[in-house]
């Protein structure tokens, strides 16, 4: 019944946002979300496609999008508001817990060249590392969708969800709402409006629970192998998450093969970034089977 009601609002309401919020209010904010803690000292990675051949020159260019510039719905943010999106380190069943998974997740989430089957070339992408200085409380949805390569964190969240719903503390509508949200946040989206329902919920829920600072959710693009977090901007502004360093890389793609070459090191200096080149040719020559660069051009 709840799913049909939500679908009706999304398809036929003349006041969609207002009616969605009214639905949340009618169910209430006592919901069986799974609480998580991003521990002090944790590292997260952000990826950003360079706007032009120029380098990023200021730390704030690698941080969250200014609210005035966010004009559409995203996975966890609504127009006129913003979130700090990043990729935490996960325990993958395929790879060790190195930097590969958050970097791959970043590349997939920002729709880099590796997601475009028909396109070849070299793309400039900057990965920035941010560290937490305090514990950060997040919430997660139950992740009931079956992922091909779920990381250990997804399995833990599923177990905690099962414990939550097996108590008699929550209403049937509260449980059904989270089941709906679980499927919605796990679906591939093409249009801004497709993110509306879940983005409105995240904004509403965080306003009701100021002890939470963001949401943890699986990466649809990596089939659950990686994860994402979306944090409120004040977590960054307060210094609870701090910029450490960045690396401008060349993402080289030819056919189904891709490689990441470190091109420049970016270190903070009073809000600006000092830039130092890496030796690209040495990296390529050290590879056992590098991708041939002949005929490839820079895409940005």
Total count of strands: 10
Alpha-beta content class? alpha+beta
- Uncertain ranges: none
Global outline:
globular
Mean pLDDT: 93
Q: How many distinct domains?
A: 1
Sheet with the most strands, sense and barrel status: 10 strands, mixed
What fraction of residues sit in β-strands?
Answer: 25-35%
- Given the structure, what is the number of helices? 8
* Largest sheet, spatial ordering of strands: 1-5-6-7-3-2-4-8-9-10
Give the assembly state of these chains: single chain
| Rg from Cα | 20 Å
The residue fraction in helices comes out at 25-40%
> H/E element string?
HHEEEHEEHHHEEHEEEH
First-to-last CA distance: 49 Å
Features:
alpha+beta; ten-stranded mixed β-sheet; 28% helix; 26% strand; 8 helices
Descriptive report:
By secondary structure, this protein is of the alpha+beta class. It has one domain (42-285). It is 28% helix and 26% strand. It has helices at 2-12, 16-27, 100-109, 152-165, 172-185, 196-208, 233-237, 280-285; strands spanning 34-38, 43-49, 84-88, 121-132, 136-140, 214-218, 227-231, 241-254, 257-269, 272-277. A hairpin with an 8-residue loop joins β6 (214-218) and β7. The longest helix has 14 residues, at 152-165. The radius of gyration is 20 Å and the shape is globular. It starts with a helix and ends in a 15-residue tail after the last helix.
Topology:
Layout: H1 2-12, H2 16-27, E1 34-38, E2 43-49, E3 84-88, H3 100-109, E4 121-132, E5 136-140, H4 152-165, H5 172-185, H6 196-208, E6 214-218, E7 227-231, H7 233-237, E8 241-254, E9 257-269, E10 272-277, H8 280-285
Helix pairs in contact: 1-2, 2-6
């Amino acid at each position: 019944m709840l799913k049909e009601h939500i679908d009706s609002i999304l398809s036929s309401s003349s006041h969609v946002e207002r009616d969605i919020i009214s639905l949340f209010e009618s169910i209430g904010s006592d919901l069986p979300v799974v609480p998580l803690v991003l521990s002090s000292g944790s590292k997260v990675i952000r990826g950003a496609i360079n706007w032009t051949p120029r380098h990023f020159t200021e730390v704030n260019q690698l941080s969250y999008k200014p609210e005035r510039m966010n004009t559409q719905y995203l996975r966890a943010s609504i127009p006129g508001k913003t979130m700090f999106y990043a990729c935490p380190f996960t325990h993958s069943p395929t790879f060790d817990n190195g930097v590969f998974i958050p970097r791959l997740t970043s590349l997939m989430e920002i729709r880099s060249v590796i997601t475009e089957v028909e396109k070849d070339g070299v793309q400039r992408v900057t990965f920035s590392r941010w560290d937490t200085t305090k514990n950060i409380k997040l919430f997660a949805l139950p992740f009931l969708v079956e992922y091909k390569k779920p990381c250990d964190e997804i399995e833990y969240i599923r177990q905690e969800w099962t414990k939550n719903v097996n108590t008699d503390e929550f209403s049937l509508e509260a449980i059904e709402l989270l089941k709906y949200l679980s499927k919605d946040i796990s679906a591939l989206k093409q249009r801004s409006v497709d993110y509306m329902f879940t983005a409105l919920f995240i904004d509403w829920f965080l306003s009701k629970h100021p002890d939470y600072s963001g949401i943890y959710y699986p990466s649809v693009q990596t089939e659950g192998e990686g994860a994402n977090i979306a944090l409120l901007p004040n977590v960054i502004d307060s210094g609870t998450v701090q910029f450490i360093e960045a690396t401008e890389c060349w993402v080289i793609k030819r056919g189904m093969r891709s490689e990441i070459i470190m091109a420049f090191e970016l270190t903070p200096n009073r809000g600006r970034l000092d830039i130092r080149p890496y030796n690209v040719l040495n990296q390529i020559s050290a590879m056992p089977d590098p991708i041939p660069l002949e005929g490839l051009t820079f895409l940005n």
